[in-house]
Design brief:
Layout lengths: L2 H12 L1 H13 L8 H13 L3 E6 L3 E6 L8 E7 L3 E2 L12 E2 L4 H15 L2 H4 L5 E7 L7 H9 L8 H7 L8 E9 L3 E3 L3 E2 L1 E10 L15 H15 L10 E2 L2 E4 L10 E10 L2 H22 L2 E10 L9 H10 L5 E3 L3 E2 L4 H5 L4 E10 L8 E2 L2 H33 L11
Parallel strand pairs: 3-6, 3-7, 7-17, 8-15, 9-16
Antiparallel strand pairs: 1-2, 2-6, 4-5, 8-17, 10-13, 10-14, 11-13, 12-13, 17-18
Helix pairs in contact: 1-4, 1-12, 2-4, 4-12, 8-9, 10-12
């Protein structure tokens, strides 16, 4: 272990209680996407206390804090932490004001980025970094509340439902060359690298019928709920046309099913994501989804309005970064380190991968299911402290010695899009 690496670990251990307090605070005060004003504010306060120049308001709640700006021409590395949570009001740590809970562990990312900042801003460590570090808090990774996000679009505040997609659009990644990102996972293993993941589009499907007295004059109405039900059934029958290797997932919810039980429903609203392993796969599934609901509307004499918005691009497979494996080995002794593989869900990290290298790692320390009520933090050391150490140690490994390693990775990377404008 190098002297600087030892100092990074010692610094984070010394600030252990401060990191844990920050993690617990965010965990208990979860907020939903594009509404993370308190969480964002807490992050800003911590970054400013460390003496970092901080910019806020990126994609409504995003924050960037800068270290070593005078070295950004060598390389600019972002440590990404996600601000938002999920609407799971039954969870033990749900925020009663927002009904949100961090059942996906984004609070652990934020704690990791903060812990890394505590170490990397130590003058003896910062001077060893021959590149810029951007501590980047990003909004709205969880793709929910589609109607709310459509309202933000109509108000001109965003154009994309995903936070990193919007950040790419507005150029907030233009001063960044490569990124480190983290996610929590149940168990007590550390994963380095990433497999593939689904991309998707989002849809709001509004079925319009005609209201009438449900008991006295049902023949005068057009039941929008019946039309939507037929659409859901047609979609279900289409599932056998989805190829197994395309990993297609379509999972609608009804957010409005009528106004009153004795009135024929004249408006039903369905939200869904249409996912697939490739753009071609989810485009095909999206066409079949539209066709299904149009057929249901025709059958009942209703009308249908379908609003489709871009979601996320597919996640690209990425090899395990040696610097992250080394960071795991010296900061989490005794915890198995394995290379990630396989296929998973969706994340807007995939969109960033289409423009620049993004290197991922997962830590454990939780049990239960992600996005589920039984999600529970069981080992704060692994969930928060190890995460902070791995962020900081990997950043040092990438930026030491004239940031040669970062420049090498960027030069070797072949992005799908050359810049944010092309994206």
């Amino acid at each position: 272990m190098e002297q600087t690496e030892a100092l990074i670990i010692e610094t984070i251990d010394r600030h252990r209680e401060e990191i844990l307090e920050f993690a617990r605070d965010i965990y208990s005060h979860a907020e939903l996407g594009y509404k993370e004003f308190q969480t964002s504010g807490k992050f800003v306060k911590k970054m400013e206390q460390l003496g970092l120049r901080t910019e806020k308001g990126f994609a409504i709640t995003g924050v960037k804090a800068y270290l070593n700006e005078d070295k950004k021409e060598n390389a600019s590395l972002a440590l990404l932490g996600e601000l938002d949570a999920l609407r799971i009001p039954e969870h033990a740590f749900a925020n009663p004001e927002t009904n949100a809970a961090h059942c996906c562990g984004h609070h652990a990312q934020m704690a990791g980025v903060f812990g890394a900042a505590l170490a990397l801003t130590v003058p003896e460590i910062a001077e060893k970094l021959d590149g810029q570090v951007v501590f980047f808090a990003t909004p709205a990774e969880e793709y929910g509340e589609i109607e709310f996000k459509n309202q933000l679009r109509e108000q001109g505040k965003i154009r994309y439902g995903g936070g990193k997609c919007e950040l790419l659009r507005i150029g907030a990644f233009d001063d960044i060359d490569l990124c480190l990102t983290h996610h929590i996972r149940p168990g007590n293993e550390i994963l380095v690298g990433s497999g593939t993941g689904n991309g998707f589009v989002s849809k709001v499907i509004r079925v319009l019928g005609k209201a009438s007295h449900a008991a006295g004059a049902p023949e005068k109405g057009v039941n929008a709920l019946s039309a939507a039900s037929l659409g859901l059934q047609a979609l279900g029958l289409n599932r056998e046309t989805f190829r197994d290797e395309d990993c297609v997932r379509v999972h609608p919810i009804i957010t409005k099913g009528g106004n009153l039980v004795n009135v024929i429903p004249d408006e039903v609203v369905v939200e869904t994501l249409v996912r697939g392993k490739t753009i071609e796969a989810f485009t095909d599934a999206a066409k079949k989804t539209d066709r299904s609901f149009k057929a249901g509307a025709i059958a009942m004499g209703a009308k249908v309005e379908i609003s489709t918005l871009p979601g996320y691009l597919p996640t690209l497979a990425e090899e395990a970064l040696p610097e992250l494996k080394h960071a795991a080995e010296i900061s989490a002794s005794g915890i198995p380190v394995i290379e990630a593989s396989g296929h998973a869900g969706s994340t807007d990290v995939g969109d960033v991968q289409h423009l620049m290298p993004v290197y991922a790692f997962n830590t454990g320390g939780v049990k239960g299911g992600l996005h589920q009520i039984d999600f529970e933090v069981t080992d704060e050391e692994e969930a928060y402290i190890v995460t902070a150490k791995m962020f900081a140690l990997a950043a040092y490994g990438l930026l030491k010695e004239k940031a040669q390693r970062s420049r090498e990775l960027v030069d070797q990377y072949e992005p799908v899009f050359k810049n944010s404008a092309e994206y």
